[in-house]
Design goal:
The complex is a heterodimer of chains A (about 450) and B (about 130). Chain A has about 450 residues and is α+β, with helices and mostly antiparallel strands. Chain A has three domains: about 25-265, 3-Layer(aba) Sandwich (Rossmann fold), CATH 3.40.50; about 270-385, Immunoglobulin-like; about 410-440. In chain A, about 25% of the residues lie in helices and about 30% in strands. Chain A is elongated and about 125 Å long. The termini of chain A are far apart. Chain B is about 85% helix and about 0% strand. Chain B has helices spanning about 5-35, 40-65, 70-95, 105-125. In chain B, α3 (about 70-95) runs antiparallel to α4 (about 105-125). The chains are: A alpha+beta (about 450), B mainly alpha (about 130).
């Protein structure tokens, strides 16, 4: 008994200690990262600044695996438990790599919520990485094909500071990709977020002087793209290793830092902290007083956004959060107003539809917020409630409806005429035998 | 020659039909006047019927005027009471002019009153 108490106290102390230690990780999901590279392609020393920034600025615990050594093993999972939150894959060659880091493994890692940075280069064919990217809908050029831009007058491919295609991922920063860039074609699925487009005057050429067809021509090619799957796991693809090397790191630090922050879930991560709906007039919730048709209802939702720099949640302010009331078809689609910080939870922004009238139709209705924007986490909140019809004593009576007065007057006049008719009929002097029957006899 | 004769015949037939028609109308009007001349009860029934038709027409024109049948149950109640009362009056009239076997005229009148009261009761409930 005493021992049990002691264990409990120890456990409580441990929990308290872990809460006291300030959270150093900037990512909303975790700080375990694995970097996979191959010394035969590039010396890791070339990326020392990148790795340092991963450790210092992004607060990641980075493990590295060098795959030219055949004894090296890459374990992303221990049985079914994911060992890393983030994975960076540099171009790696050889069959050993294909076995250790098969496309299936990478996909499973993404599907399980892991974030992936995949870098491809024209010199190396990393088959499994290409297969993995193809599964996402990103089709990098085959080996030997690299991007050239004959009009620009230089071999170096670069992106201007306004080249970003998605401000949630990165913005207002220039990028230098170097002279060895592998462009990619992108699928048009909504999970893919194009980041940097190849210039109009660029195209892919093969270094082998063969008559191989050009993989991309002009602006159909992309140099960088991001991907966010339906579970909000993220992936980043870069078509150039030189963009990450020490030679260009100082120039690229800002844009790359933003891209990596996005990929490692350090920004543009949203969560719903609270959903509520209630009667607009009385403030009673559905549980206290179920809604009936034509009731006035107000719907609120609180949305918070992860602020990686401050390592805390902050209100997310936007003007395009929409509410939908559905019964198979949407009956309402209301753009909600941001009302400022939620009074119950200051780290979230409160959105409200304002009062709206339930449609004059009973049945199961879905109160839904489906916020799916490229570059931020997808939010999907649904609440299904039964809306009842009016009870038989809740309809307005005839005297409350002015139109019904006409019909009521008609009924009253019919009844009054009937009473008069009966009175005159009974008091009518003539006997019934007069008239018709007499004529008949005469005829 | 043959087709001429039917033509002539048909022209004559048209005139004949018109003649027959006016004759029939005047005859029926006359017989109707004769029927109600000495019978104030029948006249009373007919007046009541006219009132009912007028009320029903008023209600219909009101619906057409506001272009909305919103308290539809109220409209139905108001219209059906007119129709129902009209039918009951016709039944009474038939029995007065041509009594059914075994049912006296007074009994027919009593049945008419009871049926009417039930009709009024139903309509008053239906409007609310």
């Amino acid at each position: 008994m005493l021992g049990n108490h002691f264990l409990h106290a120890l456990l409580a102390l441990c929990v308290a200690l872990t809460q006291l230690v300030p959270c150093l990780a900037r990512s909303a999901t975790g700080d375990r990262a694995l970097l996979v590279f191959d010394d035969r392609v590039d010396e890791i020393a070339q990326y020392s600044q990148l790795i340092e920034s991963l450790r210092e600025q992004h607060g990641l615990a980075v493990d590295t695996v060098e795959l030219s050594d055949k004894a090296a093993r890459v374990d992303l999972f221990n049985r079914d438990i994911r060992l890393y939150d983030h994975l960076l894959v540099f171009p790696v060659k050889g069959k050993h790599f294909a076995k250790q880091l098969a496309a299936k493994k990478l996909l499973r890692f993404t599907e399980d919520g892991g974030n992936v940075v995949a870098v491809t280069a024209p010199r190396v064919a990393s088959d499994s990485v290409h297969q993995y990217l193809n599964q996402l809908g990103i089709y990098p050029a085959p080996r030997t094909q690299h991007l050239v831009d004959l009009v620009s007058g230089t071999d170096v491919i670069a992106a201007a500071s306004n080249a970003s295609l998605n401000a949630h991922v990165y913005s207002d920063a220039a990028l230098v990709f170097g002279d060895s860039v592998s462009p990619a074609l992108l699928d048009n699925r909504p999970q893919i977020i194009p980041l940097v487009q190849a210039s109009k005057s660029s195209f892919a050429v093969s270094a082998n002087k063969t008559r191989e067809q050009s993989w991309t021509q002009g602006a159909q090619g992309y140099i960088a793209a991001a991907f966010q799957n339906n579970q909000n796991a993220r992936a980043l693809w870069l078509g150039s290793t030189q963009a990450l090397s020490n030679a260009n790191f100082a120039q690229n630090a800002q844009a790359l830092g933003e891209m990596l922050k996005w990929t490692f879930q350090e920004k543009a991560v949203l969560k719903v902290t609270g959903v509520s709906h209630a009667h607009a007039d009385s403030g009673l919730s559905y549980d206290q007083l179920p809604y009936k048709v034509t009731d006035d209802v107000v719907y609120n939702i609180s949305i918070a956004q992860w602020d990686g720099d401050a390592a805390q949640w902050a209100p997310y302010v936007a003007d395009d959060v929409q509410f939908e009331l559905r019964q198979i078809d949407p009956y309402y689609r209301i753009t909600m107003h941001a009302l400022g910080a939620d009074p119950r939870d200051a780290t979230a922004e409160l959105y409200s539809t304002g009062a709206f009238k339930m449609p004059n139709r009973h049945g199961m209705f879905t109160f839904a917020t489906d916020y799916q924007r490229q570059g931020v986490s997808y939010l999907s909140e649904q609440d299904i409630k039964a809306i009842r019809h009016l009870a038989n004593d809740e309809y307005p009576r005839s005297w409350e409806i002015t139109n019904a007065w006409v019909y009521a007057a008609a009924i009253a006049s019919v009844i009054a005429s009937f009473v008069g008719f009966v009175f005159f009929f009974v008091t009518a002097p003539a006997s019934l035998s007069d008239g018709f029957t007499d004529d008949k006899k005469k005829n | 020659m043959a087709p001429v004769i039917p033509k002539k015949k048909s022209a004559a037939g048209k005139e004949d039909i018109q003649k027959d028609f006016t004759e029939a109308i005047s005859l029926s009007l006359e017989s109707y006047k004769k029927q109600v001349r000495n019978n104030p009860k029948l006249r009373l029934i007919d007046i009541f019927c006219c009132i009912l038709v007028a009320i029903a027409l008023l209600e219909c024109s009101f619906v057409a005027l506001v272009q909305d049948n919103y308290p539809f149950n109220a409209f139905l109640a108001g219209f059906i009471i007119c129709v129902g009362q009209f039918v009951l009056l016709m039944c009474l009239r038939l029995q007065l002019t041509n009594p059914f076997q075994g049912i006296s005229k007074n009994k027919a009148f009593g049945e008419f009153v009871i049926a009417s009261l039930i009709l009024h009761f139903t309509c008053l409930h239906f409007i609310n």
